[in-house]
Amino acid sequence: MAERGARFDGRVAIVVVLIAGIAAVAVAMVAGAVPALFELVAGPPPIVRAVLAGLAIVVGGRLLVAAVRRIDGSIRREPGDTGRIADASRIADADLGAMVRGVRSVFLAAAAFTAAAGWLLAEPLPLVIALVIAGVDVVETSFLLLVASRRA
Q1: Cα separation of 34 and 117, whole Å?
Q2: Which residues have C-beta within 8 Å of that of residue 128, sequence separation ≥ 6?
Q3: Which end of the chain is more exposed for a tag (fewer CB within 10 A), N or C?
Q4: Residue 73 — pLDDT band, cuts 50, 70, 90?
C-alpha cells in the first residue's frame, strides 16, 4: 500500500514538472508578442550579466556531470536490480526512468549553456531558445515518464 502512495506522489511530481515545461514554452511564445521584456532580461548591467552567465555555466556543468553519472549508473545496473519505473525482466540493460532523467539533465544543461550565451552577448534570442529547449525537453520526458510509470 505504501508503494502505491509513493508511485502516486511520483506521478504528481511528474505532472507538476510537465506543467512547468508547458509554462516555459508559453513564456517563450510571449517573447514574440513582448520582445522588450526579453531585451530587459538579457541586457542588465555587465556585472549582473557576468554573474548570471557564470551561474548558468556552473548549473549547466553540474547538470551535465549529473546526467553522465545517472546514464552511466542506469547502464551499469545489475540485471536483477529493479528501479522505480523499470522492471528488470523487461529492461535488463538499463533502468528506463534513470536514463530518461539523465537525458533530461543533458538537455537542461544545453538550455543553461544557451542562456549563458544570451547573457554574455546581451541578446534575448538565446534566452528564448533556452526556454524552448528546456520546456520542450521537460514536456516530452515528463510524458515518457508518465507512460513508463503506468506500465510498471
Answers
A1: 21
A2: 28, 31, 38
A3: N
A4: confident
- For 71, the grid coordinates are 546514464
- Mean pLDDT of the region 101-115: 95
Q: Decide: residue 78, CB within 10 A, 0-12 exposed, 13-18 middle, 19+ buried.
A: exposed
Residue 87, all three cell numbers: 522492471
Nearest 5°: the CA angle 55, 103, 87 is 135
